[in-house]
């Protein structure tokens, strides 16, 4: 499956990565080679094989519905780039 | 042209767990911003989710209540998109293997007929935080307290054909989740939120029209208004030669209109894939049986029982089963007084009227079900008459007495049924009303029936309302007629 | 002191021959002196280490010491450490002082070990050479022109150079075993789910696993005793009893059935590496093991499958770095999209961006089934290869890497770098444990023998590795660099 620059641009947009024109063509080259390598998968017959998401056949353990966390806002917000009145600040979001 | 409306609803119900779906942070409403957002909710580097057993149980209870298939295995997926109120850059949800499969809900329409609305599926997911747009120097503030609150998203089939049906469906869902106690159903606080898919098609056409999705319609009333507006907009658009575009619209309750949201993203591509931090949830038959055995009687069953076993009208049965609190109150009143019809009348009449006047919910009623039941019992056993009963009710409402009996005693409202005593009062009234007696005597016989009312009123007054009105009536008629 | 194993140092501490304070100061001095050349640490927490050492000495005086109380260690900078910078090798987290401790870190400090600091790594654990670090490449103490391997290259180099007796690493596609091999030390990747991932910054969640890196298998066993076990905060950690890994170290190997996967001895394998590995297998035969060839037929699909699954998970895992709650934020963002795209473009390095883009692309509409679903199916076939093999043999052996450590800057093309992990990557896809032990040299650079076992066979792997180390002394050899900087 050939990779085009539009694919890279779209992925960059979805992943919210600023990519300059120069970088974009570099990524097209690199990603194309990676995908060529990945395309070996297509030659393998996997008819009837179930996808494997986790290496162990374990099932989800459930947690009791208990409040175990206390307010640590000050600690957590110490590593935040911009806060005011306990809120994280971002450029104005237009709805 | 005749148009038909096609509506499907996606209802997001906040589940009433104590802690969040994947963390031990509290879900309590109204805390200071970000004080209930723990490391997991904030998506700090390195944190991992662990699923809340209560969220699972609540989702399954809902599924059982809507006769849905509960698959043995369900899986959490990540829905990837960037938004400031979505800390991890993905929402943990269920795309491919939801916890609740296909089911159905019975709704009751205004004419008391019922209709089945199919549920496509319901899945668990985490709620996002909130963006606060008031001015922080041109910035938006993010509060992540709500992030990670468990949501059950209930997706209907496009089975509704009018705004009223949609509202009835939403009410039915509301009543199921509150009956089950899996949500407080508080729409004002956002515990239940609704996205509405609306399309129109010429009547008789099988293919669906292009739909618009109206986001965040958050009250029963708004659902009707938003749909009404949107249907009209779409019909006008098509009749003017235009075309409905598939888009997301926002309902503005102040202007009573829907408007196109500036597309958040040209083309959403959520890149769903199984969340590698969570394992498949496997529910065995014993677990389902255990939950099934704990299910309370549900609104539709209650409604049917009220009609079939208690002999209530369809209307009464519907009103009294609409909320779990109302139904429980009614059933307690009925248990105490033993007369379903009287209990229904009092709960819907005197009690509901008083509650509405003071804007109280039935849980906060100053008159308890026990008190009301006893009051009705005293009417039924002729201890008091209807008029006195209203006085007793008012006294109980005002907190002037512990029980109906205490009020009756204190106020001397016990009904007088002693014939001798009533006759004495009648004699006195007749003696004191010569003019009215003369008038009665001179009237045409067919008009006398009406005139007797005056004397009844006087006797009742003399008895301070305690005389048995039927007895008063009968005795008066005898005595007056004897004067003819 | 720097040439001693954890086991030996623990004995010296227990006998009172040595205090933790002396030991800790000694290693801190070595770091101070030598790490300018190696660049194996991103952060050295000298003050904290010394006060922990004093507390450890006091605990010992009070009779409250455990086996590892007072032993200095280093942590790959992927483990969250409360109040200490946790960068994950990225500019994105250059300013991130983690507000909590990872479970592994909690367990290690509860055991009384001392953290000397945080070791260098490929950014977000994406790399096989440690050249992808925001903090610069790490050098291999055996040859400063060579890479130490990656992504746990800082941990491997620091242990090999005697800057610390042991360190914690993580392994998503070989990131413990390959640097252990390149630096001539012992490194164990446990079964997926054996060690908690809580607080370990995620690269690819269904593959990531933490493990010990030390001079000997015995040291790794001691560390496994501390870090292994179920964690209620990690849904994928396994609730299963943890054995005492030191107890079975000396079990005899007679009758051990070793399988040599023929696919691990094919094209591209350096002849000197092959020779060293085959010599090692002979040692096992002399210890009573039997050897046979086996096949893992889907081996060649492991790298392609990995480069779908790992980047897909990574693209999602790394979305949280958005400049809002922590981490790098660009200057004066004009709007939301600018905040996101510029913060992320500035904060992430090239390889991370490449993998985010690959992962985003392969998950996107129209490609998901062809890539992601396909790769997951292949993943099942790869796991089945191993499960089938373990029906016939107890352990598998082969090289950890097709070549010894390569030169810094030698692999410019990402794909040729990825192909380095041919022998390690399938292990993560299958979730089985693997260990790399020193087994000689090729061109003067260390060779690692990789031993693989079935799920939860860590005790067996440590036993098999330990017996080899009783019969050989490759693991005791130190690079000249370690001595020159003594």
TrEMBL record, chain A:
Heterotrimer of A, B and C subunits. Pfam families: GatC (PF02686). The lineage of its organism: Bacteria, Pseudomonadati, Pseudomonadota, Gammaproteobacteria, Oceanospirillales. The keyword Nucleotide-binding applies. It catalyses: L-glutamyl-tRNA(Gln) + L-glutamine + ATP + H2O = L-glutaminyl-tRNA(Gln) + L-glutamate + ADP + phosphate + H(+); L-aspartyl-tRNA(Asn) + L-glutamine + ATP + H2O = L-asparaginyl-tRNA(Asn) + L-glutamate + ADP + phosphate + 2 H(+). It comes from the Bacteria. One of its GO terms (biological process) is glutaminyl-tRNAGln biosynthesis via transamidation. InterPro entries: Asp/Glu-ADT_sf_sub_c, GatC. GO terms for molecular function: ATP binding; glutaminyl-tRNA synthase (glutamine-hydrolyzing) activity; transferase activity. Its EC number is 6.3.5.-. This is Aspartyl/glutamyl-tRNA(Asn/Gln) amidotransferase subunit C. Allows the formation of correctly charged Asn-tRNA(Asn) or Gln-tRNA(Gln) through the transamidation of misacylated Asp-tRNA(Asn) or Glu-tRNA(Gln) in organisms which lack either or both of asparaginyl-tRNA or glutaminyl-tRNA synthetases. The reaction takes place in the presence of glutamine and ATP through an activated phospho-Asp-tRNA(Asn) or phospho-Glu-tRNA(Gln). Belongs to the GatC family. Keywords: ATP-binding, Ligase, Nucleotide-binding, Protein biosynthesis, Transferase. It comes from Vreelandella aquamarina.
TrEMBL record, chain B:
Residues 328-480 form the Asn/Gln amidotransferase domain. GO terms for biological process: glutaminyl-tRNAGln biosynthesis via transamidation; translation. Keywords: ATP-binding, Ligase, Nucleotide-binding, Protein biosynthesis, Transferase. Pfam families: GatB_N, GatB_Yqey. The keyword Lipid biosynthesis does not apply. GO terms for molecular function: ATP binding; glutaminyl-tRNA synthase (glutamine-hydrolyzing) activity; transferase activity. It catalyses: L-glutamyl-tRNA(Gln) + L-glutamine + ATP + H2O = L-glutaminyl-tRNA(Gln) + L-glutamate + ADP + phosphate + H(+); L-aspartyl-tRNA(Asn) + L-glutamine + ATP + H2O = L-asparaginyl-tRNA(Asn) + L-glutamate + ADP + phosphate + 2 H(+). Its EC number is 6.3.5.-. InterPro entries: Asn/Gln-tRNA_amidoTrfase_suB/E (IPR017959), Asn/Gln-tRNA_Trfase_suB/E_cat (IPR006075), Asn/Gln_amidotransferase (IPR018027), Asn/Gln_tRNA_amidoTrase-B-like (IPR003789), GatB (IPR004413), GatB_C_1 (IPR042114), GatB_Yqey_C_2 (IPR023168), Gln-tRNA_amidoTrfase_suB_CS (IPR017958). Belongs to the GatB/GatE family. GatB subfamily. Heterotrimer of A, B and C subunits. Allows the formation of correctly charged Asn-tRNA(Asn) or Gln-tRNA(Gln) through the transamidation of misacylated Asp-tRNA(Asn) or Glu-tRNA(Gln) in organisms which lack either or both of asparaginyl-tRNA or glutaminyl-tRNA synthetases. The reaction takes place in the presence of glutamine and ATP through an activated phospho-Asp-tRNA(Asn) or phospho-Glu-tRNA(Gln). This is Aspartyl/glutamyl-tRNA(Asn/Gln) amidotransferase subunit B. It comes from Vreelandella aquamarina. The gene is gatB.
TrEMBL record, chain C:
The keyword ATP-binding applies. Heterotrimer of A, B and C subunits. The active site is at residues 76, 151, 175. It catalyses: L-glutamyl-tRNA(Gln) + L-glutamine + ATP + H2O = L-glutaminyl-tRNA(Gln) + L-glutamate + ADP + phosphate + H(+). GO terms for cellular component: glutamyl-tRNA(Gln) amidotransferase complex. This is Glutamyl-tRNA(Gln) amidotransferase subunit A. Belongs to the amidase family. GatA subfamily. Residues 22-462 form the Amidase domain. Keywords: ATP-binding, Ligase, Nucleotide-binding, Protein biosynthesis, Transferase. Allows the formation of correctly charged Gln-tRNA(Gln) through the transamidation of misacylated Glu-tRNA(Gln) in organisms which lack glutaminyl-tRNA synthetase. The reaction takes place in the presence of glutamine and ATP through an activated gamma-phospho-Glu-tRNA(Gln). One of its GO terms (biological process) is translation. It is an enzyme of class 6 (ligase). The gene is gatA. Its EC number is 6.3.5.7.
